Amino acid sequence: MNSLVLALIGVTMILAGYALYSRFLATKIYALDDSRRTPAHELEDGVDYVPTNKYVLWGHHFTSVAGAAPIVGPAIAVIWGWLPAFLWVTIGTVFFAGMHDLGALWASVRNKGQSMGALSGRYIGARGRNLFLVVIFLLLLMVNAAFAVVIAGLLVSTPTAVIPTWGALLVALLVGQAIYRLRWSLPLVSVVGVVALYALIWVGDQVPLALPETVAGLPANAVWIILLFVYAGIASMLPVWVLLQPRDYINGLQLFIALGILYGSVLLARPEIVAPAVNGNVPEGTPSIVPLLFVTIACGAISGFHGMVSSGTSSKQLDKETDARFVGYFGAVGEGLLALGAIIAATAGFQTLAAWEEVYSAFGQGSVGAFVSGGGAIVEGGLGLPQSLAATILATTAILFAATTMDTGVRLQRFVVQEIGEIAGVRLGKGLATIVAVGVALALTFGAGVDGSGGMLIWPLFGTTNQLLAALTLSIVAIMLLRRGRTALPALIPLGFVGVMTLYALFIQLGTFWSEGNWLLLVLDIVILVASLWVMVEALGAMRKARDFQGDDDAELEQLSAAEVASSGEMDRTRSDES
């Protein structure tokens, strides 16, 4: 199979999904209505609730949900062959991820910007809400700890990415000032920001920076991890327009340019895919493709973390309801295109099948390294860029997206910590809650030693936890649709498929952890499994009641006061903190 054919088929399928299916969802299922005031206007505070241009908000949303996962998952999953990964990414993006992300955004906007954790309390019940928060907390802990380790590893292995990675923060701060203080036009800001970012990438390629092997007794990657958490903690407390929005917007543009470079190189070089379509000779120890494919590729097909971002930050910045289609569904489209690019880079970026099999010698191999090296080879062959510069572009892309996911993840973890504190009767301020969120992640990261390897300890549970969270989010969306008398099949079909596959994978992992004597992961697996099954049972009961609901759900929400919003969730708390 030629990679160009695969790229054309995949891109056409994903863009057709946005043109057709997202329009159906927006008009017939969610009935988006610009006459409704969004939480960004109703609860505007200049910190978290900020009406935002849909293109800027899309940049924030897309880069927050993308991270490294749509690169890591597909680049690992091609070990089963490129065809299963390709089908899951394309079909998943159109019918699963887009529907889920748009649905979570719609659900939160219709509930005054509340998070999925808070919405579970309203639509499933207090018990379901508490269990939901357990799953959310563990997922965010995995994301924050693991992404810090991944970024630190890339900064050590690719010193040419150090200058553009940290220089991008200065670019983002200036972009935020240009948009909100100086009132520059968005096209001008976009051009200046992207030129500055790529200038930093060129400088970084010319001037690689590497830390000494040890700094104050700590290895280089540990120092990077600490610096990343300090940054993420500070960034999570700043008003979104100062750093989070502009950083994510510029990163979003940068990713699409990077994808353009990658896909353009595929068009010019047309490399053959050397990996098998379906691998009948997988390495020993590789798990079964069913159900593991559907949890190995999470981001890029469907991801519960997206629901956290949609309801945690994006819903509070949506200017008009109809913007949700572009922000939510097209955000999933961008991630699907990134996942598709990762599949191509990890299967067509090698000279021979033997070279590919040497990298994919065991399950879990390949990952970001295969994307960077394979993609760099394709770009060098297509556009003639030096492989060092091509690798720097792709490594910087991976780092910047992992970093934007991490700082958004810390912000969301702060919300969850405040929510848990509220349930326990303890009110935590923004600063203290951030310290707790960062402290827990640092404790996990360095729990196994100063090398920071502890950050990956619970990563094997990320895929299953992430997909379970997606199923639970879809259950809330389905309940809201049923209460409005609309068809819930667009939510129920992905809910059923993802729920079954993920629970199946969790049971398989239980056996693996037991046989390996990995008691930490075994206990966490049981906690996640019990909590999720319990919430699902509660959700099924809520769905039965929703079918018989005789009231007007939107009318009830209009009666919901700001005080009631604050008491049922964390999303209005920041406004109180600021005052």
UniProtKB/TrEMBL annotation:
Its main location: membrane. The chain crosses the membrane at residues 6-26, 62-80, 86-109, 130-155, 161-179, 186-203, 223-244, 251-269, 289-309, 329-350, 389-410, 431-450, 456-482, 489-507, 519-537. Keywords: Cell membrane, Membrane, Transmembrane, Transmembrane helix. The keyword Transmembrane helix applies. InterPro entries: CstA, CstA_N. It is found in: Cell membrane. Pfam families: CstA. The keyword Transmembrane applies. GO terms for cellular component: plasma membrane. It is a multi-pass membrane protein. Belongs to the peptide transporter carbon starvation (CstA) (TC 2.A.114) family. PANTHER family: INNER MEMBRANE PEPTIDE TRANSPORTER, PEPTIDE TRANSPORTER CSTA. This is Carbon starvation protein CstA.
